[in-house]
């Protein structure tokens, strides 16, 4: 998987690439739901959550991926409502879950991230973060030393008005470093939003595929350290 020599900046997706919820989202939802009078298994919650999440993705697709802080809160409100039907005090339940994911301790950073960042920077590369998220990610970034090093170049969908895979989102990404698309690379775990979205605008793209879900993709890695190894070639 050769990395183009023209690459001068590397952006990373956040959720699923650099950060992971801990405990898992279904476990957190199950725990909170039980306190609000609804008992569901983590497995059932996962099924309902994925269906609700996909429905909101379809809404955003129909809207050409336009977003805002208000839209992001509304989409999560609907996801929680569909995932946890019948809880007592639905607003309080939603608010607790929504605020939970603004807490740095709700997330664990990939333990190899700091060394990968250091290796890439040693080669003169500029690093950044490019995420479909909202203002809550800023608090998460502040709470993790590894992520704080990316602060000069953080692009969040709710802040720029478009979500991946919109070309407008990726225009903001390359604009953040003042480069052409061919000089920037995105590393992410989502085949459509990250990999295809970046490639569609002429950016480099690497798919993080730890579970080998997309073996047909040539530009993919199983772990983050593989990226540093490939960029050494």
| CATH classification class of the largest domain | Alpha Beta
Question: From the 3D coordinates, which CATH architecture of the largest domain would you assign?
Answer: 3-Layer(aba) Sandwich
Largest sheet: 6 strands, parallel
Number of strands: 8
Strand content: 5-15%
What radius of gyration results from the CA coordinates? 18 Å
| CATH-level-4 superfamily name of the largest domain | HAD superfamily/HAD-like
Protein name: Phosphoglycolate phosphatase
Pfam families: Hydrolase
InterPro entries: HAD-like_sf (IPR036412), HAD-SF_hydro_IA (IPR006439), HAD-SF_hydro_IA_REG-2-like_cap (IPR044924), HAD_sf (IPR023214)
Keywords: Hydrolase
Tell me what the structure shows:
With 233 residues, the chain is of the alpha/beta class. The chain has 2 domains: 9-18 and 110-230, HAD superfamily/HAD-like (Rossmann fold), CATH 3.40.50.1000; 23-105, Haloacid dehalogenase-like hydrolase (DNA polymerase, domain 1, Orthogonal Bundle), CATH 1.10.150.720. The chain is built from 11 helices and 8 strands. It has helices at residues 25-35, 42-62, 69-83, 90-100, 113-122, 136-142, 145-148, 157-160, 167-177, 191-200, 224-230, and strands at residues 9-12, 19-21, 107-109, 126-131, 154-156, 184-188, 204-208, 220-221. A 6-stranded parallel β-sheet has the order 5-4-1-6-7-8. A two-stranded antiparallel ribbon has the order 2-3. The chain is globular, with a radius of gyration of 18 Å. It starts with 8 loop residues before the first strand and ends with a helix.
């Amino acid at each position: 998987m050769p990395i183009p020599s023209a690459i001068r900046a590397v952006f990373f997706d956040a959720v699923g690439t650099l950060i992971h919820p801990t405990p898992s989202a279904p476990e957190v939802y199950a725990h909170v739901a039980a306190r609000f009078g609804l008992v569901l298994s983590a497995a059932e919650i996962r099924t309902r959550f994925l269906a609700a999440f996909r429905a909101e993705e379809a809404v955003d697709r129909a809207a050409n991926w336009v977003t805002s802080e208000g839209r992001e809160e509304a989409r999560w409100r609907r996801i929680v409502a569909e995932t946890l039907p019948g809880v007592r005090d639905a607003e309080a339940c939603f608010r607790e879950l929504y605020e939970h994911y603004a807490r740095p301790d709700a997330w664990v950073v990939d333990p190899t991230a700091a060394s990968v960042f250091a290796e890439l920077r040693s080669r003169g590369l500029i690093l950044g973060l490019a995420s479909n998220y909202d203002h809550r990610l800023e608090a998460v970034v502040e709470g993790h030393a590894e992520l704080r090093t990316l602060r000069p170049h953080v692009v969040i969908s709710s802040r720029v008005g478009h979500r991946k895979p919109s070309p407008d989102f990726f225009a903001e990404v390359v604009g953040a470093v003042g480069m052409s698309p061919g000089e920037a690379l995105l590393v992410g775990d989502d085949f459509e939003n990250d990999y295809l979205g970046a490639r569609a605008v002429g950016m480099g793209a690497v798919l993080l595929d730890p579970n080998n879900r997309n073996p047909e993709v040539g530009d993919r890695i199983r772990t983050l350290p593989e990226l540093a190894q490939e960029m050494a070639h």
